[in-house]
């Protein structure tokens, strides 16, 4: 299982890397906008910071423009993965990139049917959004388990699952149990995973007791 940082912030990515939690990085236009500055520059720095895949999303939505932009993004660094929204032109572009040997991520997947199309188009990764489904009263984890079953039942589909829109440590646990290939989590969730009140209480008690004897 790989864990990626869902962030375009270098400090967050470096902090996760120190704990072995930056097997890769996913970005999107919203995350890039939070950092400000040039997208190309931000991606270049991230791609130097981590050795694993760095997912860079195209801003264009029409076939020829996606191809042009994706090829440009792929030139930024060897570890760039071209991230493309789930739409028909995006699927066509993923197929063309597959033939060119450029890795792709089809993102904004909200149904198993969309995941099947992305896998058949040759996407290297499919990226279902868990939390946003929960937000509208659907079951995000069910979607992840359905996609896991489909890919397990059809080993000819070589795409990997990246679970995104992860909101809680509980999501991380459930997704790990399902054998999801990659979990991309915001830095906040990675930090929350460290915490347990009994750990804090235990440390405080040990510190107190340690005052009662000499080393
Ligand atoms: O990579 C994008 C995805 O993780 C978005 O998460 O929390 O905005 O739904 P969220």
Describe what is shown at a glance:
The chain is 53% helix and 17% strand. With 215 residues, the protein is an alpha/beta fold. The chain starts with a strand and ends in a 5-residue tail after the last helix.
**What is the CATH topology descriptor?**
TIM Barrel
The shape, in one word, is: globular
CATH architecture: Alpha-Beta Barrel
Bound molecules: SN-glycerol-3-phosphate
Largest sheet: 8 strands, parallel, barrel
- Write down how many β-strands occur, each being a DSSP E stretch of 2 or more residues: 8
Structural class: alpha/beta
CATH class: Alpha Beta
How many separate helices?
11
Mean pLDDT: 98
CATH superfamily: Aldolase class I
Encode the helix/strand succession as letters: EHEHHEHEHEHEHHEHEHH
Distance between the first and last residues' Cα: 41 Å
Question: Strand sequence of the main sheet, in spatial order?
Answer: 1-2-3-4-5-6-7-8
Helical proportion, percent range: 40-55%
Number of domains: 1
InterPro entries: Aldolase_TIM, TAL/FSA, Transaldolase_3B/F6P_aldolase, Transaldolase_AS, TSA/FSA_arc/bac
Organism: Candidatus Lambdaproteobacteria bacterium RIFOXYD2_FULL_50_16
GO molecular function: aldehyde-lyase activity
Protein name: Fructose-6-phosphate aldolase
